[in-house]
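User: Quick one: structure for sequence A, then sequence B.

Assistant: Sequence A:
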Amino acid sequence: MGRFGVGQAVRRSEDGRLLSGQGCYTSDVNQPGQVYAVFLRAVHAHARLGNIDRAAARAADGVLGVYTATDVAADGLGTLPCTGMVKNRDGSPMFLPPRP
């Protein structure tokens, strides 16, 4: 097998700390007044949701807001930017789907 064979183990510089419990993840960061966001998506690709009843979520303890794609569009929030643009092998720009 060559130097970079399929299925061959690849050592990474971060493996030691991640495998020994020394890694730092976003869930390890806690700040005063910190809140969390949860995104719920359809379980089926290209599904069309007819109605979303947000009453139970809004009534749950600690919930600060419940927003749908309609709310995001109405507020003009746009899409998430991609910061890692690379070119395809032929030099053309990579396909960048919108990520609302």
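Sequence B:
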Amino acid sequence: MWRRKPIVAGSFYPGKAKELDRDIDLYMKQAGEKKLTRDIVCLFSPHAGYIYSGQVAAHSYREILGMKLDVVVVLAPSHRGRFDGASVIPEGIYGTPLGDVPVDGVIGAKLMESAGFGFIREAHEYEHSLEVQVPFLQKVLDGFAIVPVVLGTTDLDVCRTVAQGITAALAGEGRKWMMVVSTDLSHYHPYAEAKTLDHAFAESLKSFNEQEVKRVLASGKAEACGEGPVLAGLIAGKALGGNAVEVLKYANSGDSAGDKDKVVGYLAAAIVK
């Protein structure tokens, strides 16, 4: 059984539990009260260092604070290499400074038998985009397991195959589940230009149409480093009963801890039904 150790603790977020706990509490307090009144199928959350994107991520995670969820499927992009499909940790432990989270072996086994899935240890071992979601989940939920999925592609047909595997695994699941999609938006543009690009992405996301999202990203009118997870999450979200996307918060690094010359965009959103 593999215990996936935290690799960006102390850089992307505090490496000590007390400081990490304090910082997430502050972000959650700044995010304020819950906004959504409809059931949530999937959350979208950024994955930069917490001083940059933590305040935006909190706008997603506040929506599930205190909920009873048994399993969370986290979809994240690969920053260290491309591969054709998705890698899922089929079982084990996912560690952070806040403690260990069990990896759900039931859904993991189902995905391992699905087209488009396998287990590539290297895809998870040094990937920050999934890891940074876990401490937030630990702060808002109790007694849950995760299914860590890293996508190595943005090909729409492959993302559709991955989404079909997730849909099949969750459709008959009697436990309470949810998905999380990890993505940042535009990278290293001036502040005003970034806002234009990121607005175009948000509008395409609200269309709730994966082909429109793909079109906008392919045209260069928007950017998202989590394109594969976004596409797969939208497709699976629709198949699992979602019928709309609600945007909860937008900001970029120029609003948080960076200058405005070269910024990175962040979005909090949810698929609801």
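The first helix runs from residue 17 to 31. The chain has a mean pLDDT of 98.

User: Thanks, that's what I needed.
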